[in-house]
Design a protein that fits this description.
alpha/beta; six-stranded parallel β-sheet; five-stranded mixed β-barrel; 13 helices; binds iron/sulfur cluster
């Protein structure tokens, strides 16, 4: 069969789509572009915000419109949490966020038996589903899903209801997969999950995320290892000391923040206050030279006053992030925050998002400029407009002009300027050997 896949949402969804692609290829099917003609259209949906729900519905309608006779199959967080919406969208197969291996068989059966649904209760899941890792041809970076589920129940978030309790990929399996991906030629592995800071917590064997990171770094010494989003509680003196001792761990930490005001953090049911968060920032900056320190921020959370928002802005400045993702609060029916008093007007949310983005841009520029005159290794990914583009270990975007092919090579560059959020430079004089 010709199968077309479309992914919305996070790295976990992207990882699971890549695994589905590998499974369909292994079973003799052909992957075709989503815009093209296919026997089956698969949409891996997202439900992190109301906008994601809307985009998921639009993509499903697009598939049905372009191919009235084809099989339209949906999976992912939106399908898991809103199966009733699928009925009105003329979907042939509705699955959720579990049992990807079973989903592949259901897709093959759906050609004969339409209108099927295969949804379980995510809260009852206990096993981590091991899927084939790795992306299709030509990718430099591979995601390695090491954790699923979340039990933090932040008051604005629907994900625990879509993904269930914490399940972790066994450490030995993670190390084996990492070695396999290195052997396939990837130069960077991204450890991802719904909430990787919870890795191993259900196993009660005392192992934590840093044990896993050490094992993966040792199993794939020729790869850079990058961490997905972390919770501040993970960042301790012990974590930083051991992480700083890993030569191939990327000094880039995405530390989920959401607000810099303690009163707002409490209403969000986040598991830290601004002091604990700042302690993590100090520890990371103390153990790494100019680490990439990125964060997510929600503005306009219910009840957020101008005073509270000013506290957040001041806190951002104190942390001096290298880059930020800023989201206006999205009201999610079914979450406690959706019922909270003091819902903020969209115009106010947008205005606060602009102010936070302005500050984030200034911090990012200052951090990028701090690299000028220094030599830093870059993993090059692609060539555009005559320049090779890639990222440093700290996750700074970088570009050089070079006659040699740099795809999937880690090459030191001398940073000479920072323009439009990109470090520009020249390859270090002694990089010529292909293995550099
Ligand atoms: S940590 Fe909070 S925001 Fe992140 S997935 Fe869990 S409940 Fe959602």
């Amino acid at each position: 069969m010709n199968i077309a896949l479309y992914t919305l949402g996070c790295k976990v969804n992207q990882y699971e789509t890549q695994a589905l692609e590998r499974l369909f290829l292994q079973r003799g099917h052909t992957l075709v572009p989503f815009e093209g003609e296919a026997d089956v259209y698969i949409i891996n949906t997202c439900s992190v915000t109301a906008v994601s729900d809307k985009k998921s519905r639009q993509t499903i309608r697009r598939a049905r419109k372009q191919a009235p006779e084809a099989v339209v199959a949906v999976c992912g967080c939106y399908a898991q949490t809103h199966p009733q919406d699928m009925e009105g969208l003329d979907v042939d197969l509705t699955a959720g966020t579990g049992d990807r291996l079973g989903f592949v068989e259901l897709v093959e059966q759906a050609v004969r038996a339409r209108r099927t649904a295969a949804l379980d209760n995510p809260m009852e899941r206990r096993q981590f589903e091991i899927l084939p890792p790795g992306a299709l041809e030509g990718r430099t970076r591979a995601m390695l899903k090491v954790e699923d589920g979340c039990v933090n129940f932040c008051s604005y978030c629907i994900i625990p209801y879509a993904r269930g309790r914490v399940r972790s990929l066994p450490l030995e399996e993670a190390a084996a997969q990492a070695a396999g991906l290195e052997a396939e030629g990837y130069r960077e592995l991204v450890l991802t999950g719904i909430e990787i800071s919870s890795w191993g917590q259900e196993r009660k064997d005392g192992r934590t995320l840093i044990d896993l990171v050490e094992a993966v770094c040792a199993a794939a010494p020729g790869c850079r290892v990058r961490l997905g989003s972390l919770e501040p509680r993970t960042v301790t003196e012990d974590f930083c000391r051991r992480a700083a001792a890993l030569p191939n761990l990327c000094p880039h930490f995405h530390l989920s923040l959401q607000s810099g005001c303690d009163a707002v953090l409490a209403r969000m049911n986040r598991k830290y206050d601004s002091n604990r968060y700042f302690e993590s920032v100090k520890l990371l900056k103390g153990h790494f030279d100019r680490p990439g320190l990125t964060a997510d921020l929600i503005v306009g959370f219910p009840g957020e006053t101008e005073e509270e928002f000013s506290q957040t802005l001041a806190f951002l400045e104190r942390c001096a992030f290298s880059s930020m993702h800023i989201f206006p609060y999205s009201r999610r029916p079914g979450t406690p925050a959706a019922e909270m008093a003091g819902q903020v007007l969209n115009a106010v949310k947008e205005e606060r998002a602009r102010r936070a983005a302005g500050l984030a841009a200034r911090m990012e520029r200052a951090w990028l400029e701090s690299w000028i005159g220094r030599t830093v290794p870059v993993l090059f990914e692609e060539k555009r407009n005559g320049l090779w583009f890639g990222h440093t270990g700290q996750y700074a975007p970088a570009a050089v002009s070079c006659g040699e092919t740099l795809h999937n090579r880690i090459v030191p560059i001398l940073a000479e300027s920072a323009e439009n959020g990109i470090l520009l430079g020249t390859p270090a004089s002694d990089f010529s050997s292909p293995q550099a």
